[in-house]
Amino acid sequence: MARNPIDWSPKNWLRLLYDFFSSFKLATAILIFITLVTLLGTLGQVDHGLHAAKEKYFHSFYFIERFGPVPMVLPGGLLLMILLFINMVVGAIIRVKKRWKGVGLLISHLGILMLLVGGFVTWAFSTDGFMALYPGMSSDRVESYRDWQLEIVPLTAEGKGEKAWIYPSRQFESLRPGEERTLDASELPFTVVVSDYSRNTHPIPISAPMASQVQAPEVNGYKLAVNTPSKEAEQNLPGCYLTIQPRKGGDPIRAILWAASYRFDPKEKSMPFTFTVDGQLYAALLSKKSWTVPFTVKLDRFDFSRHPGVMMARSYESLVTRSEDDHTDKQVEIKMNEPMRYAGFTFFQESFGPAGAQPGDDMFSQFAVANNPADQWPLYALIVVSFGLSLHFLLMLFQFIVRSRHKTPPTPFTP
Amino acid sequence: MKTRSLITPILALVSFPAFLFGGMEAPKTTLESYTPWQDDTVKTFENILVQQDGRVKPINTVARFTLLQFLGKSKVWFQTERGESYRVDYAAWLLDVLFRPQIANQLPVFVVDDSEVVVQIGVSPKSKRDRYSYNELLKGRSKLAELGAEFEAKEKKYRDSEKDPQYELERVEGMILTLARNVSSYEYLIGQFGFARTGEAMVNEGMLPPEMVELSRRLNIVDMVDKMPEMTTAQLSQLIRQAPGESEDEKRFSAALRLFFFQASSAQGIHLFPPRDSDQEEWLSGGDLLFAGLASKKDREWTREQLGKIQALTQALKKGEEDFNTALHTFSDQQHAAAAALGEGTHSQLEIRLYRGQWFINALYCFVLAFLLMAFSWMTPGTKIGKLLTLGAAILALVGFALDVYGITLRCIIRQRPPITNLYDTVLFISAIAVLLGLFIEYATRMGVGLLVAVLSGVLGMFLSLKYEAKEASDTINQLQAVLDTNFWLATHVTVINIGYAAGLVAAVIGILYLSGRFVGLWMRRENPDFYRSLTRMNYGVICFCLFFSFAGTVLGGIWANYSWGRFWGWDPKENGALMICLWTLVILHGRKAGWIREIGLHVNAIMLAIFTTFSWWGVNNLGVGLHSYGFTEGVWGALYTSWAVMAVFMLMGIPIWLHDTKVRQEKKLKSHVGKEAHA
Amino acid sequence: MFLFRITFSPHFSLSKRPLQDQDNSNRVFPSVVIAAAALGMVSCERASTILEERPLSESEKQFRIDVSDAQRFRESRGEHADDSHGTPGLSFTTPDGWTQKTGAAMRDLDFSFGPNGEGECYLARLPGAGGGLAANVNRWRKQMGVDPLTDEQIQALPTRSLFGQPARFIEAEGSFSPGMGSTETFAGYRLMGLILASDDGAVFVKMTGPGDLVEQNKAAFEQFISSLGVKMP
To answer: What are the chain C neighbours of B251 within 8 Å (beta carbons)?
Structure first.
């Protein structure tokens, strides 16, 4: 029985394409590749850290992996997910024969599609950040874990500011050593020149022994040394050189900005570089990117307990008051595995600090704040898929047992 | 008649370990004679409560894991100078350490895997791998402390530098560090009741300046508390740094202070005394009480009363073991009453039963015996005896399963948690599920294969659980991190995903049976296509089962993560591991539909599935990254690589079988072609 | 494939932006125009910028403006100078030639100096009065083998500022016997130290060593004292 030759004529292309995208072969190939990419992405975290590995393997269309000396181009997670989606829609939903026996599988495939769509929505539309509060503090501001920006704040003589002008980091994060970028905004009476921005840095005084080895300009007795970025992207402390050039002329003001001057502990105050132009005091600092939620959260109480006699945390939970302009206040408890969901935002009891706090010290409570439209979709998808699979497998199991038991005497096992 | 001839080899195999030990000699000690503790005394002692690692537990558990940690075994084996040999079990050993330290110091309880370790600290080595007593190591004590501190600092740098290889400890360095830690923990144990041994020589008398020896023997540390002015621990430590005055009195006072400080600092780590106030959770050690009494006059009466209980014990021991046992009983009763008032210590008897019952070792014996019975049944296929043997094997497998489940249940009750909270639990649980799956398959098919799968899984699982416990040597009923403190998710996600793991492993066992069976069949020119076809159907079912549970487990895990960390999926290694298991089952199921894999492919990929399963189960915890870093174990990679190599060998067996099948198929095709033509 | 990526990413970055930014949708159009214009200017690295603006939340309105570069760069913390040595709550500068030691109990900071490290300086804090000023002064004097002082003499001791409070300055020369079980004495030694005793607690700073060496390190001692501060949590 020879195979039928394939009709390659153009008018059949659509048909071929349909066959290709609906085929089990494509499905299997995609699944194999996703497994491979997952494996590489897991192992890659050891060397690159979670964030970098995620970007390279899972949030990409393709990536290049070296197996020994051989570089290979492989499909990235994003591409594979899109292909899988198409393959499932065409193959498992449209093309599949609609029989009662296949209804379980059809349902479970629909569930997986939901999961994929949910994943895409999360990836594209969700935000996540954190809010840290000491008891008694309140805030409506959520900070990014790892995105930084340059801010200029006009200050009163006492160091109080009302608003900040933001230069997003995408405007200067691509700078290579020695390069500079002039940021010219008409709102301010000076231009800002950023140079030598680097993701992980630390300033060293020129008196330090290693200072002579650092190839960087000196400003006010300091040089900015570049560190290798940490595998934990949250640990990075970016820094840059800053030159303020007043429009009316006058000497440029030079400074080094370093992320660690930012307040990490909510009790702290940021320590910006301050300068005066046209008699107005300004602060310049690198700060965490942030955004607001449409309500205010006040931490009333933070209960933290350790297992007796050891440092391991047993439980921690927060009692907060959520208030809005036009609503009455509402007290809510947030604890591990029991987040507060409100107005599209979810507050999770994430962590606590400061690091190394001893029993009895003041501690802050940290919430992860996520905004994910597809928050609950996985749960629905799970229910759908589980239902579909149960239906299918129970049917199969029944058949299997009936067939096995009613067959002519079973062959005993002898190796 | 045939059965009798079988009994000898079975006995030989079962008693194999005994043979192994019989050939070795018990380590010699300097002890002239040894009086073992009476069973009654040990029974009373093992139920004494201790708070350790945030949990109140019987001292039996502490003893067991301490000895495992020092020696890697749960019994100390030695012979006296007269040549009498003894095997002292963990609780009795701890009794020696706490109450007869001079004897305990002569027992060989520190295992050293490489004699290089003792050479480096200046102690004369015995054989390459040997056991040393504390007294034997004493000569190298200060060198050991020095090297230990050095390697501890190096290890810390290694951790802090995100594993910079230049700070990685070498093998011997790691062993020295372990030995240094063990010896130090041991010293805390022998010093634990030093304060209560007035009238006896101090254990480490040799370390004292000569002028203090006499004082140390008659000083009553507990009485001293009353006579001192109030001072904090810090003030005491400051005070003993000052040079003593000129007069004899001042000198004696200073020496007494130093002895007090030494004894109180030594009596740390074993928290025997329930807190006085019910709003307190922390139990206190003898040293804590001494310092507390020193710090505040109003606590003195209470602390003296508590410390007096230990003094009563040491005094009673001098009178004889009967008295000691009675005193121990009194102590234990008072302690249990106080603990009960705090709602603690309620399951201590169960916990003792958990370890004394040796459920998992006994389960292992059952499975091994069941395997032997099955092996003998293959020699007499189809006969009555064969059937009887198989029945016996099935019963033994059921008993083994019951023992495993009983042990798991005890653990659940003791800590009031679902079955799995740590890596050790997963071994017990997965074994149980794998055995159950095997038994179910046997029930459905009656082919002997399911039983074999059950028995093999049981043997491997129980063996692994024992190995892991001895290697970790720390209490496996531990407190949970805050994020895991939810019985709902532990019962759902964790249980379900581990059922998935079990199925993945069972699939591999069936795959191995198929491939090796057919490989041997090819070689011996014996084939049984029907049998193997049903094996494939069976494995297909197991793979579907695996998909269902690993998928549900993975998504449940995601939902849990969404509740506790705020994201459904974070590409965390453990999540990825579970995902890979799901994906590979899907690859198998879709690959079959695509026509890429048939029987052989299914079994080869089932083994691959197990490789992903073991990677996810053990491997990812040891990558050192990710949020699920709750089960880090050293030396796992070696074992994993070995298991993968073995599995790869079985997978390779698929190649000759595949070549053979292809040839047969082509021949068949040709024949039918020829036949058709002839027909035409 | 690459094309895909380009067309995808702007959408991605826009939607990834936080909610508040999305409200400023009227800003998108001008920024697109300007971005297009900027494309032609990339080479000269000068970007006209439309600034985004945000109101400061109550908790972040106040800045610390009286800070030196050293503070801004968290000198004592940034270099991990003291954190790794477990001295919570103290900031200080290690004088040149001094080496910080670890391990001694009850000492918050511990340094050695001199060719063989025979010079020693430590800082210790004790809760409570720690025995009182007089007892401690005379304890030190006794260690140096010199006669105790009377209360009036002690009250007349000079003071130095330690953590912004007046601490008694003690100097003594003689044969030093450190105590702590050691029976050795060191002749020709010198002690220089500060004791700050109050009812809440006592702080001791004590430098000992051979006479010449201590004399040479007098400036370093002063410098160390003045660098001491309590670290902001």
So the answer is: none
